[in-house]
Amino acid sequence: MDTQGGSDIDPADQWVLDPESGEYRLRAGAGDAPAATVPTQRRSRTRREGERQSEPERRSVPEPGRGTRRRGAVRSRKAKRSTKRKVLMWTAGTLGFVLLAGSTGAYLLYRHFNGNISTVDVGTAGSKNATSKDAVNILVIGTDSRVGLGGKYGDAGSLGHADTTILFHVAKDRSNATAMSIPRDMVTGIPDCPTKQKDGSTKTIHGTPEARFSPRFNESLGQAGRDPGCTMRTVTELTGLPVDHFILVNFEAVKTLSTAVGGVPICLAHAIDDTDRLGQGSHLRLAAGPHTVQGEQALQFVRTRHSLKNGSDLDRIDLQKQFLGSMIRRMKSGNTLTDPGKLFKLANAATKSLTVDTGIGGVGKLTALAKDLNRVDPEHITFTTFPVVDNPAEGTHHRTVVVDRTKAPALLAAIKNDVSLTEVTKKPKASDAKLRGSKADPSQVRVTVYNGGGPQGAAQTVLQWLQNTKGVAHSTNGGNAPGAPQDRTTLAYGPDQADQARSLAAMMGLPASALHPGKDDSGPGTDMILTLGHDFQDAGVPLTGRAEPPAGVPQSHADKNECVG
């Protein structure tokens, strides 16, 4: 990767330790920074190269404007490719993954940065390996801890809760990734949580079952001594997705990182004046239109909610998604990863703001993880929010939300099956004659669903999915299918129900081989028979291939800039 001066020295090589001050600074000739001592090994190499260059019989000096320009062009192309690959580290879609890129770029300052990173042993929660050949789930937690901030943002003694939480799922083949925000005010149960104590012992913090108004998701961290491993376990119980690692950041991380990259561009659809009648709020004041925020103002932006449409945490999540997506674009266009000055500031700020599990507790492990995630294309990184609805138990004064049981299963099934939310459902092949022709309206489809080999409760899951999301009101749960379990899902129907069969096959993604037409007319009011086999995975997951992206789930993308608020 080229440097500002056009040499072949990696940006991390530009930094040396000043023995007098104990601080790192740029060596001589690197950007505009003051000169510093050049390492002896590098100096010797330069001298040897100079000696070889002075021997005309071995190497000739190129004519001005010819060989030099060509080598410069080659370096330029290499720099673009190198920059593109490193930029992909920033496309993880969360602040935590921005931190990964910083620590990766400065890998030669390993000992300095490694000492900045804090770790938490979460025991059996998560993975002990930094990388994996399977899909990866990383939980990025923004804590509202005020410890060490002098009471500037509230209670200086607050240990912090899970104020902002994003589950980042990376597909097994690294073809796509989904960053799903989890609302902090969602009512959900919190499981028992074994936590490691300072003396090495393990203490189990008893869980809290879900009630009408509590507990809220953000209580999975900080409350009763819960550590990030408790939040990991809560997310797994909530989503069914195992969490491999966590990355925890605080308020200061937003300020220092946004400043290190020279500010983050954002865009507001409406003006913001975030101070409520009690004088609370982020105190951010911005006119509608584009702005660039950094430092204190960046923190105000990601914490704003009172002046938004509903004044809720869900509105704030939209601002946070824009901020993170814009951070990615900033890195891509600002050459931050090839600027040694910016890179050092970013890496130093990043690692100081970082707390992770022991599985990725070190620059070396973070480097390995970042390189693994490096293959995700920014176009296939999608931000979304865990589907919720207002808590019906609260009447008209809504302070909490609950899981949206009609939309959440489809989104979680898509994530579990590595479906990119930007993909289009594959169309049936033209040769599938049974799938061609008119389709009945969902209200005319009649079917009884049997479980003949699918997961426990699969028939009821499909029934609810058909009724609540597809409009198939005439559907019945037949329970367990009689006879031996079957490997393949089948749909039996009469000749006069072909249009209904095609409609149901399209909804469920059934292949033509799953359709079994009968010889006799079934008659009006007769149900088709859908029997779920071992090949059935979940409602919304077609048997013809990958699941379709769920409809009606709000999303934004890392490569797009849109005004919000």
Strand and helix layout:
Layout lengths: L14 E3 L6 E3 L13 H14 L13 H21 L7 H11 L4 H5 L3 E3 L15 E8 L18 E9 L6 E6 L10 E4 L5 E4 L22 H12 L5 E5 L1 H10 L3 E5 L3 E2 L11 E2 L2 E5 L1 H9 L9 H21 L6 H13 L2 E3 L5 H11 L7 E5 L2 E3 L10 E3 L4 H9 L29 E6 L6 H12 L4 E7 L9 E4 L4 H11 L6 E3 L10 E5 L22 E3 L8
Parallel strand pairs: 3-14, 4-9, 6-15, 18-19, 18-22, 20-21
Antiparallel strand pairs: 1-2, 4-5, 5-6, 7-8, 9-14, 10-13, 11-12, 15-23, 16-17, 20-22
Helix pairs in contact: 3-9, 3-10, 6-7, 6-9
| Count of alpha and pi helical runs | 13
Major sheet details: 8 strands, mixed
As a whole number of angstroms, the C-alpha radius of gyration is 28 Å
> Helix fraction?
25-40%
Count the strands? 23
Instruction: Determine the structural class based on helices, strands and strand pairing.
Output: alpha/beta
Instruction: Give the amount of beta strand, in percent.
Output: 15-25%
Cα distance, first to last residue?
A: 39 Å
What spatial order of strands do you see in the largest sheet?
A: 3-14-9-4-5-6-15-23
Query: What is the overall shape?
Result: globular
Mean pLDDT: 76
Could you name the ranges where pLDDT drops below 50 across 5 or more consecutive residues?
1-17, 30-74, 78-108, 424-431
